[in-house]
């Protein structure tokens, strides 16, 4: 992992942890001081150097939390279930729900050595390898969406059916609860989205945050060794998950770590149309209608506005977790306006 661990912000008793851990990793030597990854994750993440073995610990933050937030038990459960599939995940060793050990629930998994790419334009990679990296990203999200959740014991991992309808309601409620300003474009989206949900409901495992910087690539090959950050995973509509992943193509390189406006052909990166075709071909799906695809993109922009608005509200109250919070919050209005422009451009003739 290329995000380097540093000082501990949520410290705990390493000896107590080691006592609990020792029977599970009998081949590791006594853990030396623990270091914390700083990737802005909501679940604090630590590197435990067991000498002969490196492990990673993810925990709930200490203190009072929302009931559904920071569900490390869900992350552990889904990675355990996916271990027997073609979706690469870190090997999970154990879940501890006893807060007495380190102060909150946590799980421990194997450390995965490899590369994490922060910039989707892949400047550090030779152009001839970029295409293979994107093909691998495509393969893995298609593998995830090919799984029937019932076959790996995840049939109850979320509610089946009406995912988009429920999500529109949920983010409308969240947005209204944390609204800090009047955004007319958001009001229009709130009215428009429930009335134009594309036909064809499906239920698959969705990652919820599948991006190039949430996977670890092999140090030398264009092969994904592990998909990380499953905290937003649930059962949902695969095309909504895919569209979230594909927002990268529609976002600007400077502010949003996107690919919009870049010469993709020169970079050796597929166009979004080619990427969608590859996904549909892998899953034997009919090609997506441009109108339906636009809906899924707009839905994801709307969802992100809801998230950004929550971040902005917390920044105003002074309890946001990141110094970037206020800046992120300011992105809500332009994103809502961009989403509404897309609706106008695509659906003007469809009412």
Summary keywords:
2 domains; two-stranded antiparallel sheet; Aminoglycoside 3'-phosphotransferase, Chain: A, domain 2; six-stranded antiparallel β-sheet; 12 helices; Phosphorylase Kinase, domain 1
Give the overall shape.
globular
Mean pLDDT over all positions: 88
- Which residue ranges are poorly predicted, with pLDDT under 50 across at least 5 consecutive positions? none
Structural class of the secondary elements? alpha+beta
Kindly, what is the distance between the CA atoms of the first and last residues, rounded to a whole number of angstroms? 48 Å
In what order do the strands lie side by side in the largest sheet?
1-2-3-4-6-5
Number of domains: 2
* CATH fold assignment of the largest domain: Aminoglycoside 3'-phosphotransferase, Chain: A, domain 2
User: Which architecture of the largest domain does the CATH hierarchy give at level 2?
Assistant: Alpha-Beta Complex
Oligomeric state of the chains? single chain
Share of helix, binned: 40-55%
Relative strand content: 5-15%
The biggest sheet, with number of strands, parallel, antiparallel or mixed sense and barrel status, is: 6 strands, antiparallel
What is the gyration radius calculated from CA atoms? 21 Å
- The count of strands amounts to 10
Query: What series of H and E elements makes up the topology?
Result: EHEEEHEEHHHEEEEHHHHHHH
The CATH class label of the largest domain is Alpha Beta
Assigned CATH superfamily of the largest domain: Aminoglycoside phosphotransferase (APH), C-terminal lobe
Number of helices: 12
